[in-house]
Write a sequence for this structure.
């Protein structure tokens, strides 16, 4: 019945109205349909092409419905209005909604028909919080890796609590790095260390050989001279 109503309404609109008016009505209704689709949550939690198809369906239904209704009103007048109202009231969507409202919601019904679909629960499930290792259990190389990984996690943190926790974790890693090698840690800081920087460039370098003083060099040269003579 809905298809027949749509075909008759569109035919009446095309015969009674200028083509430009019909196109304008369809475009306007399509925009309204897109806006309505954005305000109604998707029970299936679709994304990508499926979500785009849902928006397109709303737009096409709105455009087709409005043009058909206008066509029936132009041709049928009051009779067309009554037919439109009858079709809307007897549509499957309206009837199904009325039946669901009239159905008693007993505890056994609630258990049998949860308000959230299983796929919705699955898509909403997220992994638990990351447990960051204690600084005193890591080597210098592991501390450097943890420092960089925690920065990435800090950029992706969704709540103030997560950010505060990561700031505390990173402070512990900094203290541990300074404890392992305070000299090279200071070199890293004075070089313009950044939150996203890699301290491994300074803290994983092999220690520089000890420099000999002038007195040590003179004494060694004197010993070599005595041995040669």
């Amino acid at each position: 019945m809905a298809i027949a109503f749509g075909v008759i309404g569109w035919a009446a609109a095309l015969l009674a109205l200028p083509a430009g008016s019909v196109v304008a009505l369809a475009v306007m209704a399509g925009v309204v349909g897109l806006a309505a689709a954005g305000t109604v949550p998707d029970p299936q939690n679709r994304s990508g092409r499926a979500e785009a198809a849902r928006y397109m369906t709303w737009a096409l239904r709105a455009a087709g419905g409005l043009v058909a209704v206008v066509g029936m009103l132009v041709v049928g007048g009051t009779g067309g209005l009554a037919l439109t109202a009858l079709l809307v009231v007897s549509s499957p969507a309206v009837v199904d909604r009325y039946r669901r409202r009239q159905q008693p919601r007993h505890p056994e019904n609630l258990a049998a028909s949860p308000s959230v679909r299983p796929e919705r629960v699955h898509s909403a499930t997220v992994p638990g919080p990351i447990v960051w290792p204690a600084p005193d259990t890591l080597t210098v190389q592991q501390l450097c890796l943890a420092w960089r990984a925690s920065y990435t996690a800090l950029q992706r943190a969704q709540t103030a609590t997560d950010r505060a926790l990561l700031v505390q974790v990173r402070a512990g890693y900094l203290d541990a790095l300074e404890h392992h090698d305070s000299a090279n840690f200071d070199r890293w800081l004075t070089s313009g260390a950044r939150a996203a920087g890699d301290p491994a460039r300074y803290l994983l370098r092999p220690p520089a050989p000890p420099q000999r003083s002038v007195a040590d060099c003179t004494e060694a040269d004197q010993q070599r001279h005595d041995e040669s003579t």
